[in-house]
Design a protein that fits this description.
Largest sheet: 10 strands, mixed
Structural class: alpha/beta
Helix content: 40-55%
Number of strands: 16
Radius of gyration: 23 Å
Oligomer: single chain
Bound molecules: 6-O-phosphono-beta-D-fructofuranose
Number of helices: 17
Length: about 475
């Protein structure tokens, strides 16, 4: 038996049924990474108990082993709603103005990380390779090390990473961000994110070594690994999704109108108000498009107990009401707004049916909606992606119309250009993006990261380590991992 891969993340997408929808980008990516690999996925059960945690529960669904812990109300308040989502999330997304720090939340964050380490520790074998995901668990590596685990432990940050001046606005930042130095390899979405963190470490007195950085006696490597999607499977899903009753209903209900689609969690980082203003500007400046185009904004609610999330909801509903009141008529609603989430099949069908995919976050680690939109298109008659320059995906999807989401006129102009783009140009823009996604899919992301992670362990032979990790397929070259 070779090493197991132990995935740890706050959110764990255990399907209730084999066809249940998955939560967000991180969950989709992690699930694909674990597919066909021996190991387990450890994290929060999604349940909130009155008191502090009881037993961990182990479940196996679709050949994936999950080990889940409940969080108490207090944990949720201090760790999840508190430090993770009212401090780290806004800071990592460059929104220092939105952070609401408290010492109680910071100690709750450290407590829950310790609790994760306590729960995980007895389940670990010496040769397990551990891969921790996202900003909720920045100090888990340190907690595992302090419990004596010498395993290879990696971390991947799914969000952006802001520059040092912004990171330093986090009170006691060294106690939290410095925790990342206890991992063997910290992965980021883009080179920009990686460099921002490298500059932060240097600003805190780290020294650069031949392979990485040394900070407070810890050696850490940093790398950029743009997360991706299961491109081929997603193409297939979208091709077949036309059969979904919901997708047909939506298509019929448009009565020939062009469809612009936005799919985002309800989050201030997603730039939804700016997008609505740009759509309004399109209608304002181009009367010929009134009555002929519909924006469908699919926006599941998210982190609703946090004040800023309530505020963004009020802002979005107010803006949409204003545009619909101003331009709509009895037979046409310019913006359709839904707060529910749809199955992956329905979403894939909607992407394929949409003439324009609007992905215009103010800041986003990667944004897998952008990649899914490209993969879902009919290559013979593809739609156009309008993409924010501030999404990690913009570094790769250069066939999109790249916009600054803060510039309403420019986004409105890009929208008009997208709606009127000739077929030939649409194809020319789409084909290279699809090729890129076929080559750089989720499997490659996981392989690249894990190869670098295992290679980061000096005591281990790189090739032997990787071969063992993927089930002892000793005849496989390192880059043909499965
Ligand atoms: O890193 C960001 C992320 O994990 C996304 O991938 C995902 O969409 C979102 O956060 C989920 O947030 P939450 O777990 O708070 O619902």
């Amino acid at each position: 038996m070779g090493p197991r891969l132990i995935i740890v993340s706050n959110r764990v997408a255990v399907p209730d049924t084999p066809r249940a929808p998955l939560a967000g980008g991180m969950a989709v990516a992690v699930k694909a990474a674990l597919k066909n690999r021996r190991g387990m996925w450890f994290g929060w059960s999604g349940k909130v108990s009155e008191e502090s945690v009881g037993e961990s529960q182990a479940v196996e669904v679709n050949k994936i082993n999950y080990v889940l812990v409940d969080l108490s109300k207090n944990d949720i308040q201090e760790y999840y709603n508190g430090l993770a989502n009212s401090v780290l999330w806004p800071i990592l997304h460059y929104r220092v103005d939105l952070q609401e720090y408290s010492r109680a939340d910071a100690s709750g964050y450290l407590r829950v990380n310790r609790m994760f380490a306590d729960r995980l520790s007895p389940l670990l074998r010496d040769d397990d390779v551990i891969w921790v995901h996202d900003y909720h668990l920045m100090v888990l590596g340190r907690d595992l090390r302090s419990r004596g685990h010498r395993n290879t432990i990696g971390f991947f940050l799914h969000t952006p990473c802001a520059p040092p001046d912004i990171l330093q606005a986090l009170p006691h930042h060294r106690a939290i961000l410095g925790g990342l130095a206890h991992y063997d390899l910290v992965g980021f979405q883009t080179e920009n994110d990686r460099d921002n963190f490298a500059h932060y470490l240097i600003s805190q007195g780290a020294t650069q070594t031949r392979t990485g950085y040394e900070f407070e006696g810890q050696k850490v490597r940093l790398g950029a690994f743009p997360v991706s999607i299961e491109t081929k499977a997603y193409m297939r899903l979208a091709r077949n999704a036309g059969r979904s009753a919901m997708v047909s209903l939506v298509r019929e209900s448009l009565s020939g109108n062009r469809l612009v689609l936005g799919v985002d969690r309800l989050d201030y980082s997603k730039g939804i108000p700016d997008r609505i203003k740009a759509f309004e500007r399109l209608l304002e400046n181009n009367p010929e498009w009134r009555g002929r185009v519909t924006l469908l904004q699919v926006t599941p609610k998210s982190r609703s107990e946090i004040r800023q999330y309530g505020e963004i909801e009020t802002e979005v509903t107010g803006l949409i009401g204003k545009v619909n009141g101003r331009f709509g008529d009895a037979a046409w609603t310019p913006i359709r707004y839904v707060n529910r989430s749809y199955s992956r099949t329905v979403l894939a069908g909607l992407y394929r049916a949409a003439d324009v995919g609007m992905v215009t976050p103010l800041r986003d680690g990667m944004n897998l909606v952008a990649k899914e939109y490209v993969a879902a298109q009919n290559p013979d008659d593809p739609g156009v992606l309008v993409l924010s320059q501030f999404a990690g995906a913009a570094k790769e999807l250069d066939g999109a119309l790249i916009v600054n989401p803060h510039e309403t006129d420019a986004v409105a102009a890009a929208l008009k250009r997208a709606l009127e783009m000739p077929l030939e140009e649409r194809r020319e823009r789409h084909a290279p993006m699809l090729d890129h996604l076929l080559e750089n899919d989720i499997k490659k992301w996981a392989e690249d990261y894990l190869a670098a992670l295992v290679g980061a362990q000096p005591a281990r032979s790189l090739l032997a380590g990787i071969r063992a990790l993927f089930g002892g397929q000793s005849d496989q070259a390192p880059l043909a991992l499965r």
